[in-house]
Amino acid sequence: MCFVVTKSFLVSCCLPIFLMGMRYYFSRKVILHYLDCALHTDMSDIEQYYMKPPGSCFWVAVLDGNVVGIVAARGNEEDNTVELRRMSVDSNYRGKGIAKALGRKVLEFAMLNNYSSVVLGTTAVKMAAHKLYESLGFKHVGVVEHYALPGMTRSLLERMFFQVRYHRYRLQLREE
Fold first, then answer.
1. What is the pTM of this model?
2. What residue spans of 73-161 are helical by DSSP H?
3. Which of 48, 70, 89, 176 sits most deeply, having the most CB atoms within 10 A of its CB?
4. Alpha-carbon distances, residue 40 vs 34, 57, 111, 165 (angstroms)
5. What is the CATH number of domain 11-172?
6. Signal sequence span per UniProt (predicted)?
């Protein structure tokens, strides 16, 4: 279509490269802003956000003296749920069951503290993450299209070149 409009082979060949470059630029920009936001909010004071509030906790997976994974749980007294948050495993240690063990730790915590369900939200694009949640018993309950990550400006160019789907999961532990 580009060639039909411009009659230029050069422009037709360069356009996909330009578009991929724009996608890369905005993806990187949004992700770096998101990480900056995370590092200046809850991850800047893990004790305050996850260790002090009742019904919340934070775990670290250590292997051979190295931190290889983390996960947090944040309780919500209003609806008697606990949210699984910040699950992350070092890319060099993925596929070894660490994420599953961390997820089970949150489920165990939720049962010990009499929560009725565990919820989580993820923007993960890798199917392995979604399969992990389902293997732990979570049910996919919805998708929010064009989700805005913290730190996103929602500018026209950002919306054109970077879109996020936010998947919500829930694991019902007991009926209320």
1. 0.83
2. 98-112, 127-135, 156-161
3. 89
4. 10, 19, 31, 23
5. 3.40.630.30
6. none
